[in-house]
Write a structure and sequence with these properties.
It catalyses: nicotinate beta-D-ribonucleotide + ATP + H(+) = deamido-NAD(+) + diphosphate. Pathway: Cofactor biosynthesis; NAD(+) biosynthesis; deamido-NAD(+) from nicotinate D-ribonucleotide: step 1/1. One of its GO terms (molecular function) is nicotinate-nucleotide adenylyltransferase activity. By secondary structure, the protein is α/β, with parallel strands linked by helices. About 30% of the residues lie in helices and about 15% in strands. The chain has a single domain, classed as HUPs (Rossmann fold, 3-Layer(aba) Sandwich), CATH 3.40.50. It contains six helices and six strands, in the order βαβαβαβαββαα. It starts with a strand and ends in a 5-residue tail after the last helix.
């Protein structure tokens, strides 16, 4: 089985994440895409994050019954902050017959060489890069395991959604209805 891994804070998950994940699962050679909820990204401040279990629940609600997508809390039990190489290594040990492919936005390429063991990620795993609005094209030193995928560009951000919630503006269609309801019931991002 060939599994695409889309890592993220998903704070909250939105339709852009879902469209991208489903596109990658159905328009590439991947069998499925797992959304990996990261408790703490080493490159992002954690003061705006709601609890990881709320974010996991929102991703689960967002995916619903889509058989192309899965959700994982694998990083919840790992040391924080989460490092992609450690998660990839753990998953490969847990599922030795699976091939894991890292899905990465083009906007992450300039930072990629600073990632922990970036060279090992490229050595042992394929990386599928999708376009992001306003990205500066950057060449990776070793391109053999990197594939650029022409996926739709959706300029929706969780930051914008959180701002809308704080300003009591509608988030309809930015997030799935079940996620909007969860946010409202649990009074998140207010």
């Amino acid at each position: 089985m060939k599994v695409g891994l889309l890592f993220g804070s998903f704070n909250p998950i939105h339709t852009g994440h879902l469209i991208l994940a489903n596109f990658m699962a159905t328009n590439t050679d991947l069998d499925t895409v797992w959304l990996i909820v990261s408790p703490q990204n080493p490159f992002k401040p954690s003061n705006t994050l709601v609890h990881e279990f709320d974010r996991l629940q929102m991703v689960t609600l967002a995916i619903g019954d889509n058989a192309n997508l899965g959700v994982s809390n694998i990083e919840f039990s790992m040391p924080k902050p989460s490092y992609t190489i450690d998660t990839l290594t753990y998953l490969q040990e847990k599922y030795p017959s699976y091939e894991f492919v890292l899905l990465m936005g083009e906007d992450n390429l300039p930072l990629f060489p600073k990632w922990k063991n970036a060279d090992k990620i490229l050595e042992y795993h394929k990386v599928y890069v999708y376009p992001r609005s306003g990205s500066i094209t950057t060449e990776l030193p070793e391109m053999s395991n990197v594939t650029f995928v022409k996926a739709p560009i959706l300029d929706i951000s969780a930051t914008f959604i959180r701002q809308c919630i704080r300003e009591e503006k509608s988030i309809k269609y930015l997030v799935p209805d079940a996620v909007a309801e969860y946010i409202q019931v649990h009074k998140l991002y207010q």
